[in-house]
Write a structure and sequence with these properties.
single chain, DUF3899 domain-containing protein, 70% helix, 149 residues, mainly alpha, membrane
C-alpha cells in the first residue's frame, strides 16, 4: 500500500493580512521564530531603549516594527512554499530512480541539499537594523534632543 503525503502551501496574502492585523502574533502563521522574536524580544528592546533615554532609537524601532514583520512574513512564506516544491520534486525524482541507484540515504542527502532556511538571515538582519537605528540615535541625539518633561 502506498500513501501520498501532501502539504498545504501558505498564502502570502494571508500572512500579510495577519501581520497587519496582529503584528508579531500574526507573524506566527509564517514563521514561529519570527513570531517569538517580534512578539517577545523586539518590544523589550524598544522599551529598554526608551527608558534608558534613547528616545529616537525607540521611536525609530517602533515605526519600523510593522515593516520588519511584513518583510519577514513574506520571506518566510516564500521560503516555506519553495521547500514544499523542492520536496515534491525530490519525491518524484526518487520514485523514478532505478532501484540499483536509489539507496536509503539518497532521499535524505538530496533533501538536505535542497532545504535552505532563511529565518536565521532575517534574525540577523533584524538585529542589524536595530543596531543601526540605535547607533544613529545615539550619535544624533544632540541634533534631535527630545525632552518629555
Amino acid at each position: 500500500m502506498s500513501y501520498i503525503v501532501t502539504k498545504q502551501t501558505k498564502s502570502t496574502g494571508v500572512a500579510i493580512l495577519l501581520t497587519l492585523l496582529f503584528g508579531g502574533i500574526g507573524l506566527f502563521y509564517a514563521s514561529i521564530v519570527g513570531g517569538i522574536i517580534m512578539t517577545l524580544l523586539f518590544p523589550v528592546i524598544v522599551f529598554l531603549l526608551f527608558f534608558t533615554g534613547h528616545f529616537i532609537a525607540s521611536i525609530g524601532l517602533a515605526c519600523s516594527y510593522y515593516i520588519i514583520c511584513i518583510i519577514w512574513s513574506i520571506v518566510s512564506v516564500s521560503s516555506y512554499n519553495r521547500n514544499i516544491q523542492n520536496e515534491s520534486s525530490l519525491l518524484v525524482a526518487y520514485r523514478h530512480t532505478p532501484l540499483q541507484i536509489a539507496d536509503d540515504n539518497y532521499y535524505d542527502q538530496y533533501r538536505k541539499s535542497l532545504k535552505k532556511d532563511h529565518s536565521t538571515i532575517w534574525v540577523i538582519a533584524t538585529l542589524l537594523i536595530c543596531g543601526l537605528l540605535f547607533y544613529l540615535a545615539y550619535h544624533f541625539k544632540y541634533l534631535f534632543s527630545i525632552t518629555l518633561f
